[in-house]
Amino acid sequence: MEQIVTVINPENMNLLGLLMKGFFENRLQDETVARKASELHGAYHVTAGKMDVTLLFDKGNITIERGRSRPPLASIKGSMDALLGMITGKGYIWPVLTFKVRIGGNPLALLPLLPVMIAD
After folding, report:
1. Is the separation of the CB atoms in 111 and 73 below 8 Å?
2. Which residues contact 28 (CB under 8 A, 6 or more apart)?
3. DSSP tag of 10
4. Are the beta carbons of 54 and 44 closer than 8 angstroms?
5. What is the pLDDT of residues 19-46, one digit of tens each?
6. C-alpha to C-alpha distances, 92 to 8, 41, 50, nearest whole angstrom
7. What's the helix, strand, coil split of the chain in %, to 5?
8. Residue 117 — very low, low, confident or very high, per pLDDT cuts 50/70/90?
9. What pLDDT score does 81 carry?
10. DSSP E strands: which ranges in the chain?
11. Which residues contact residue 94 at a Cβ distance below 8 angstroms, ignoring those fewer than 6 apart?
C-alpha cells in the first residue's frame, strides 16, 4: 500500500511542515515504517520554536497542516535543534527528561508514532 504525504496549502506552509514532508516521504520508503504508519490514526501537534504543524494520520496517509488545526491525541514541543536530534536518532529519552522537549496530551499516544518518527 502506497502512503501519501500531503501538505495543505504548501505555499503558506512553514519550514517545519516542509521538512516533515520530506522526512516522512523518506521514512515511508522503508516497508516496516510504512506498515507502522498505516496503523496510525488521529492528530498530533508538533511545535519547533514558533512553528506549529498538525500531523493527521488516516489509513496510511499523512496530512500536514500549518498550525494547530484540531485537537491532538498528543503534542511534542521543543527547539528545532532538539527535535531534529530526536528524529535523526540521537536519542529521545534525554531531551524529554531534561525538558528540552515537552510532551502534552496523552504520552501513551506517542508510542506508536515513535517507529515512524525516529530514525534507526
Report:
1. no
2. 3, 5, 34, 37, 62
3. G
4. yes
5. 999 999 999 999 999 999 999 999 999 9
6. 28, 22, 21
7. 40, 30, 30
8. confident
9. 85
10. 5-7, 42-48, 51-58, 61-66, 74-78, 101-105
11. none
Mapping DSSP to helix (H, G, I), strand (E, B) and coil, where does residue 6 land? strand
pTM of the complete model: 0.88
Q: How far apart are the first and last CA of the chain?
A: 22
User: Rounded distance, CA 83 to CA 17, Å?
Assistant: 13
Q: Would the pLDDT of 53 be above 70?
A: yes
Beta-ladder partners of 5: 62
Do β-strands 101-105 and 51-58 pair in parallel, antiparallel, or remain unpaired? unpaired
Per-residue pLDDT tens digits for 54-81 = 999 998 899 999 999 889 999 999 998 8
* Cβ within 8 Å of residue 70, ≥6 positions away: 43, 54, 56
Q: What is the distance between the alpha carbons of residues 2 and 17, in angstroms, rounded to a whole number?
A: 21
